[in-house]
TrEMBL record:
This is Solute carrier family 13 member 2. It comes from Spermophilus dauricus. It is found in: Membrane. CDD domains: SLC13_permease. It comes from the Eukaryota. One of its GO terms (molecular function) is succinate transmembrane transporter activity. One of its GO terms (biological process) is cellular response to lithium ion.
Length: 587
């Protein structure tokens, strides 16, 4: 009997893939309508995404098969959803992030900031959290965590080392790790359950006190949590943010580009800062206790360890040498990219997009994706060294030009193409829901929620999404929830962004389980943590996150997105009554 169960468990993925489509067949057979056909597709994909019986990106391709066969959308209409402007923004943003990683610019930034902040316990935690959050605003949360965790463990090795270790100035071998290669790194960037990476071998561990163990746990968690928190601050910081932008553009094509880089940053950056500070305080209280005076300074006997830890950071920063031409060029292009994003169409003044490339309505024809691809192409053109002729070491006697800042081999090794398909699958589902009438049907069924106060609705939905994302991909979570939330908002005459924005942020609050997100898996793989430690710290952090998001959506988000009115671009046949008074109060 035990062997039978083991066999079923071993073949569970095959059984799920074969049985689920059959078990769900009564829905389209008993209710032969386009709404039921679309619901069948969505439920099937949702279950495949939650169980991961198939790779997430493969499941995302189902609409290409199911929608044409069920008469919901033509194949050409479905396929065009897989390379929308949001996907282009994602690709362009990652091109720039890959260049930053390739030239080790992110490591230089991290070490420099840590040198400035110092190594006192509370300040060390804050330093690692600030650096990790800042880097994850621009590059992959996974890559940021994979770089920062070895640095953190190297510093801790010196803080907790024996006097002999301190005198010799020994280093933790994990600190010498370069960026993990594609075979060792978690392959699912920001998009689902993760397989932990393997940490580098280290020296035999010395016996640590209980206080040192708690500080190590605190440091590990501060890195993975701040990576997830930092990703919410920018539109390209983590994939759910881009899912929201794409869904809003797909479901509400008449919207005047309300979700862009500048508007998102104005809403999400203060949210990120508040959540990061509260996380820092919570982790201190949980692992280091209430003795803040001690947390902000060592005793006299710890000065040697403090100096040794500082020397580790200083030595590694010195090994990087002076900034190369490539690093300076990537830095300049990165700053130009951010400035162009902010000033393209900021809303509160005429941006360069409105002035230089306006359409008939005066809106910018160039998008954030246009800017990202423009800067990316420049990186493929500019040389990585000051132009000059050098000898080719492989072929003596022949001259060789320096390589470009970015090359396709590097991009193909580091680009998570699976996310592009996953984004496209979500946009295809949203379009299918709209065309089949499923969205309108859901809106009618959710109309009774109009009697619930909007703040309570947003809070409860955030809790639901934050719970769901602990055991499912954050991309799949937002892909499944956002079309439903849009329909609900239309049905109850509520600004769609009032529920879609907070739930998108809540999808990044995966703090409780190692498998919830790749950063969690990485720190868990380095040891020193139990699932109970992460769950204990993450539970209250989830609640804090939901409360901060609720505060944000009911305060500074209102003027940014004009949430106090029901927008003209959100109207449908079921919301005509909402438009009779366009100043109908929302939240």
């Amino acid at each position: 009997m035990a062997t039978c169960w083991q066999g079923l468990w071993a073949y569970r993925s095959y059984l799920i893939v074969l049985l689920l489509p059959i078990l769900l067949l009564p829905l389209p057979i008993l209710v032969p309508s386009k709404e039921a056909y679309c619901a069948y597709s969505i439920i099937l994909m949702a279950l495949f995404w939650c169980t991961e019986a198939l790779p997430l990106a493969v499941t995302a391709l189902f609409p290409i098969i199911l929608f044409p066969m069920m008469g919901i959308l033509d194949a050409s209409e479905v396929c065009i959803e897989y390379l929308k402007d949001t996907n282009v923004l994602f690709i362009g943003g990652l091109f720039v992030a890959i260049a930053v990683e390739h030239w080790n610019l992110h490591k230089r930034i991290a070490l420099r900031v840590l040198l400035l902040i110092g190594v006192r316990p509370a300040l060390l935690l804050l330093g690692f959290m600030l650096v990790t959050a800042f880097l994850s605003m621009w590059i992959s949360n996974t890559a940021t965590t994979a770089m920062m965790v070895p640095i953190a463990h190297a510093v801790l090795e010196q803080l907790h080392g024996t006097p002999k270790d301190i005198e010799e100035g020994s280093d933790n071998p994990t600190f010498e790790l370069q960026e993990p290669n594609s075979k060792k790194e978690v392959t699912k960037l920001d998009n689902g359950k993760a397989t932990p990476v393997t940490a580098a071998p280290s020296k035999p561990k010395i016996q640590k006190t209980q206080e040192q163990i708690r500080f190590t746990q605190c440091m590990s968690l501060c890195v993975c949590y701040s990576a997830s928190i930092g990703g919410i601050a920018t539109l390209t910081g983590t994939t759910p943010n881009l899912v929201l932008q794409g869904q809003v553009s797909s479901i509400f094509p008449q919207n005047p580009n309300v979700v862009n880089f500048a508007s998102w940053f104005g809403f999400a950056f203060p949210t990120m800062v508040i959540l990061l500070i509260l996380s820092w305080l919570w982790l201190q209280i949980l692992f280091l206790g209430f003795n803040f005076r001690k947390n902000f300074g060592f005793g006299e006997q710890e000065n040697e360890r403090k100096d040794a830890a500082f020397q580790v950071i200083h030595r590694q920063h010195k090994l990087l040498g002076p900034m190369s031409f490539a690093e300076k060029a990537v830095t300049i292009l990165f700053v130009v990219l951010v400035l162009l994003w902010f000033t393209r169409e900021p809303g509160f003044f005429e941006g360069w997009g409105n002035l230089a490339f306006p359409n008939d309505k005066g809106e910018s024809m160039a998008s954030d994706g246009t800017v990202a691809i423009f800067i990316s192409i420049i990186m493929f053109i500019l040389p990585s060294k000051i132009p000059g002729l050098t000898q080719n070491p492989e072929k003596p006697g022949r001259l060789k030009a320096p390589p470009a800042l970015l090359n396709w081999k590097t991009v193909s090794e580091k680009m998570p193409w699976n996310i592009v398909f996953l984004l496209g699958g979500g946009f295809a589902l949203a379009k299918g829901s709209e065309k089949s009438g499923l969205s309108a049907w859901l809106g009618d069924k959710l109309a009774p929620l109009q009697s619930v106060p909007p703040p309570a609705t947003a809070f409860l939905l955030c809790l639901l999404v934050a719970t769901f994302t602990e055991c499912a991909s954050n991309v799949a979570t937002t892909t499944l929830f956002l079309p439903i939330l849009a329909s609900m908002a239309q049905a109850i005459c509520l600004h769609p962004l009032y529920v879609m924005l907070p739930c998108t942020l809540a999808a990044s609050l995966a703090f409780m389980l190692p498998v919830a997100t790749p950063p969690n898996a990485i720190v868990f793989s380095f040891g020193g943590l139990k699932v109970s430690d992460m769950a204990r710290a993450g539970f209250l952090l989830n609640i804090i996150g939901v409360l901060v998001i609720t505060l944000a959506i009911n305060s500074w988000a209102i003027p940014i997105f004009d949430l106090h009115t029901f927008p003209f671009w959100a109207h449908s046949n079921t919301t005509t009554q909402c438009l009779l008074n366009t100043t109908t109060p929302g939240p």
